[in-house]
Amino acid sequence: xxxxxxxxxxxxxxxxxxxxxxxxxxxxxxxxxxxxxxxxxxxxxxxxxxxxxxxxxxxxxxxxxxxxxxxxxxxxxxxxxxxxxxxxxxxxxxxxxxxxxxxxxxxxxxxxxxxxxxxxxxxxxxxxxxxxxxxxxxxxxxxxxxxxxxxxxxxxxxxxxxxxxxxxxxxxxxxxxxxxxxxxxxxxxxxxxxxxxxxxxxxxxxxxxxxxxxxxxxxxxxxxxxxxxxxxxxxxxxxxxxxxxxxxxxxxxxxxxxxxxxxxxxxxxxxxxxxxxxxxxxxxxxxxxxxxxxxxxxxxxxxxxxxxxxxxxxxxxxxxxxxxxxxxxxxxxxxxxxxxxxxxxxxxxxxxx
Length: 353
What we know:
Low-confidence stretches: 105-131
Shape: flat
Order of helices and strands: HHHHHHHHHHHH
Structural class: mainly alpha
Largest sheet: none
């Protein structure tokens, strides 16, 4: 029987091995050579962490398991190859924090992949304000599936006929997708306008009082751990070029890339539309082919397939097991669909009377 300490060490070893495999994969697909070197350094640190837990397990006389990276490592690696490392990095960082490990190698270096000679953090810096495209995509698809299966089940419960269910499902798909797209467009545009106003204000302050800006930059790097003399020297060097000083203040104070300002509103709107529609199509698709109770049962089956795919995505950024994610997703969706089916059945009976 495995004791509690051995189980904890085995879990730590599995996490460190997964991290090593993932960062090695990211290093292989990173477009920037410096970023790739940074990922390899992190992978080396994770390898040292794994060796540490292996040694502790040997001291306890426990066998060392074979190396088998989990599914989320393979999925995140594939997404990084298709869409770039920036697409998955917020998820990777969230998973690292969710693991809560005490490791012999300091993990603080994971926060910044690299800081160039001028001290400016680059676009892959781990900041919450940087957003999480993967998380937004999964949640958008989840919203589409849950809302549309509820609508379809409500119409089916009211016994309105196959054509009415199909039309309602398609209407829910289009209306929900358009609503999500418009909301995302407004959100990103509002965010861009806010950041632009903040950048303009900082640019004006730098033009009027460059010494104050230099002191602020020095304070930023003192907070990062640099000594006073080094921080002041770096701030003086950055302040020689006003654009560089402004770029540094924006990145450090606001946590955004001045050239992007949170991304494109149109790209966000289009992606929101597509992912909501992707989730919403699962419950309505069978009604294109069959009808009656067969269509409703088929709708439940395709909805479950969609739930599994969404749960897989959810498990990537929550760190929870796939089985737990599927079960939770199924319970939430089943409750919502049951309520709307019951309400639809009741309303259908009342209207028919």
